[in-house]
Amino acid sequence: MRKSKSTVSPILNRFSKFSRVTSMNSGVRDAVSQGYPDKALILFRQMKQNGLEPNKLTFPFIAKACTKLSSLKCSQMVHTHMLKSPYYSDKYVQSGLLNMYVKCDEVENFAYAVFDRMHAREIAAWNAMLMGFVQASCFDRALCLFNEMMVDGVRPDSVTVMGLAQLASGLKDVKLLTSVHCLGIRIGVEADVSVANTWIAAYSRCGDLSLSEMVFNEIDLDVLTVVSWNSMITGCANAGEGFMAMELYHNMLYGGFRPDLSTILNLLGSFAKPNALLLGKLVHSHGVQLGCCSDVSVLNTLVCMYSRCADIDSARSLFDSIVDRTRVSWTVMIGSYAEKGDLEDAMALFHAMEAAGEQPDLVTVIYLISACGQVGALDYGRWIDSYAISRGLKSDIRVSNALLDMYSKCGSARDAEELFSSMNERTIVSWTAMISGYALNGQSGKALDYFNVMLMSGLEPNHITFLAVLQACVHAGLMEKGWELFHRMTELYKLSPGLDHHACMADLLGRQGKLKEALEYIQCMPIKPDAGIWAALLSACKIHRNADIGEYAAHHLFELEPQAAAPYVEMANIYASTGRWDGVASIRTKMKSNQVRKYPGESTIQVDGKSYTFRVDDKFHPKGCLIYEVLSSLGLYSKKQIDTFRSEEFF
DNA sequence: GTAGGGTTAG
């Protein structure tokens, strides 16, 4: 007897639907594991269109696809589907959802909302939330979360330890990191190579490369991975230890490891400095051999490497060769021009970037701002300020700080003050920008006032802040105040003075006429004095007409920078002012034999976006006559000099 | 068959 179709159909139908969902699930899973998250989402959509209900296994896979895409839009779409599903409260579904939002950088609102509503929190959920806070730099909240986790009696595992290590390195707190390290040993996860790799990276980020090395050397050879090598190489790169990075790379190849994209990327980072071009080129060629150089992030790093190695032409032609330029590609190239003070090329590329439909972000803007500060382009600087406002970038403190610095360097204290008082958050960088702005523009009293107010607000000065106040003292000739600050820096704040700080102190002594003391100070410095310090002493000798100490300083300068013209000129002036004409003649001979040429000094100013360059006694500007009239009315130029120019018929 | 994780340019 034939069964009627109507009784058998629903069962068959349900069975076939079940098997179709199962096969769709494996399709989704495979797509995700093979690195095609977008394909997984297409399958998911097809499922819905065919009336197939995703089950409890579908959602974790789909969530994983969303984490790989880091797209908030996709995540929210999936979230809506999940809400309608009977499996919404499943712990794995919830964990997947949480992780999805963490990866979209939606930690504080979306991810925490999911976490907060979870009934049963597994260790994975805690870890995901912890990582999320750490990656979003919400370190306080991460610490609170860890405490809560302990109170809840959840036992930390290896992933927790990794999250805590990243937390400690984010805070640059090596003490905290050591206690995380101890926790790792106590719970027995120190043999886990992933944990060790995190420690290597974390110690180097805290500035303790020797501890990174210790962890690296303790890893069992059987479990050592490429990531371990990469972490160690990155550590060296960040510490500026290019030679050590290269040595590690050599050992890595010797040990039979195949470098990957990340190896090349990090290695290039260690050669992004002058005099490292040869090694950079070597690694570039390795990258080509390994097939890494079609990757846009490697290309971007290469552009950066070439420009930092002062080979801007190679950087530009490499940039031009990139087919799929990203925002970072543009920014790196704009930054290359900006760092060498080439504002015009930087701006041109910035407009090209916008024309190409790429959105500049805060890093792009910060580069442009700093270029304006370097060349004193107040007009452009103001324009970028308003551009930053229109793009909502000025709310970021880093942008505001860059603007403060730019206004100070352009000598516009009013713009700087206005901005400073409008900021609702001020970091040590903001204060330091203000202080050094006043120091630079000769308003030493105001610089010191700001310094005191800053101290009262509870902020701790760093070595750059101290440099700024010391410069203020130099400009005002405040010898005692300078020494007091210098001692406060070394004794109270335990900051070791760098070359610049020592230069200030030597300058302070020299300008006061204490040339012998200045010389003694330089000779007893714990670090080798550079050309800047000797130049400061030489110019002090010029003020106080001391040819003997001047000769000594000049001698060092001729050794350090034989091609620089300034020391020869300074020394010749000192001889002339003390009537030692034989000395003047000997300097002339020395300049000739060393083939040193003195180019006249230049000064550039921008008005209405146009650059004007002037030299001493410049007669080429069309409005020169007017300029000299104004100068004479200010008492900066004598009437007689203007008449001389007139008679020469230059105007 | 299901989670959370290690290196990553400006």
Structure characterization notes:
This protein is an all-alpha fold. Among the domains are: 426-496, no CATH class; 506-614, Tetratricopeptide repeat domain (Serine Threonine Protein Phosphatase 5, Tetratricopeptide repeat, Alpha Horseshoe), CATH 1.25.40; 617-651, no CATH class. It is 71% helix and 2% strand. A two-stranded antiparallel ribbon has the order 1-2. A hairpin with a 2-residue loop joins strand 1 (602-607) and strand 2. Helix 13 runs parallel beside helix 15 (261-270). The chain is elongated and about 115 Å long. The protein binds one DNA strand of 10 nucleotides through helix 1, helix 3, helix 5, helix 7 and helix 9.
Topology:
Elements: H1 5-33, H2 37-49, H3 58-69, H4 72-84, H5 91-103, H6 107-117, H7 123-135, H8 139-151, H9 158-170, H10 174-186, H11 193-205, H12 209-218, H13 226-238, H14 242-254, H15 261-270, H16 277-290, H17 296-308, H18 312-321, H19 327-339, H20 343-355, H21 362-375, H22 378-390, H23 397-409, H24 413-422, H25 428-440, H26 444-456, H27 463-476, H28 479-492, H29 499-511, H30 515-524, H31 531-543, H32 547-560, H33 566-577, H34 581-593, E1 602-607, E2 610-615, H35 624-633, H36 639-647
Antiparallel strand pairs: 1-2
The structure holds one DNA strand of 10 nucleotides.
